């Protein structure tokens, strides 16, 4: 299955422009959000703003941007299920084949001296984990990458085969669930500490 459409939305921008350039060069449509989109666009690479896909603006200081059926339908549709594919067509949703997401820097935020609870809470990612988990659930149809260290091997694999094999897809899905579980554990630990300290 050739990758036709990718969603790139990362907190850690390491290597993202190089990956976007490669994807563009092989004919992949790129959709993106906020700072990631700006970085890609400034490098002169064509990119579609996620709000132009959803038909809905980013609202509530970016708290709500990717939580939309145009995104999650495109990720979660099982390509071999005729009913899923009919639903995509009926609702004018295009499949998303590759999702590259890493989450808001919660760990780095709470490590800052005198960080406020409000700052910490604003660095709890919601849309990111939802996209990561949706992509990992549908790993047979969607490649999910949460670690910038994976970009080079992904590029090499797509260059050679135009796709990722099932073992790679499953490995990346496992890494994705590990990424979200560690993230949730950090938030849990932070809130536990707050309670212990009586805050």
Structural summary, described in words:
Helix content is 53%, strand content 10%. It is α/β, with parallel strands linked by helices and 199 residues long. It has a single domain (5-196), classed as 3-Layer(aba) Sandwich (Rossmann fold), CATH 3.40.50. A 5-stranded parallel beta sheet has the order 3-2-1-4-5, with helices on both faces. Helix 1 (16-25) links the parallel strand 1 (5-10) and strand 2 (29-32). The longest helix has 31 residues, at 166-196. The radius of gyration is 17 Å and the shape is globular. The chain starts with a strand and ends with a helix. The mean pLDDT is 91. This is IMP cyclohydrolase. GO terms for molecular function: IMP cyclohydrolase activity; phosphoribosylaminoimidazolecarboxamide formyltransferase activity. One of its GO terms (biological process) is 'de novo' IMP biosynthetic process. Keywords: Hydrolase, Multifunctional enzyme, Purine biosynthesis, Transferase.
């Amino acid at each position: 299955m050739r990758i036709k459409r990718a969603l790139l939305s990362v907190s850690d921008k390491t290597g993202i422009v190089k990956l976007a350039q490669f994807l563009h060069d092989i004919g992949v449509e790129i959709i993106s959000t906020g700072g990631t989109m700006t970085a890609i666009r400034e490098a002169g690479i064509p990119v579609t703003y996620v709000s132009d896909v959803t038909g809905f603006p980013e609202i509530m200081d970016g708290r709500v941007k990717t939580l939309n059926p145009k995104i999650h339908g495109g990720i979660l549709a099982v390509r071999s299920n005729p009913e899923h594919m009919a639903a995509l067509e009926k609702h004018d949703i295009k499949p998303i084949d590759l999702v590259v997401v890493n989450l808001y820097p919660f760990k780095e935020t709470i490590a800052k001296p005198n960080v406020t609870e409000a700052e910490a809470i604003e660095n709890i990612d919601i849309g990111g984990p939802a996209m990561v988990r949706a992509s990992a659930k549908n790993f047979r149809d969607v490649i999910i990458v949460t670690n910038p260290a994976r970009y080079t091997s992904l590029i090499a694999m797509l260059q050679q085969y135009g796709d990722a094999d099932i073992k790679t897809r499953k490995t990346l899905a496992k890494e994705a669930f590990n990424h979200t579980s560690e993230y949730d554990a950090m938030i849990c630990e932070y809130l536990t500490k707050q309670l212990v300290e009586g805050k």
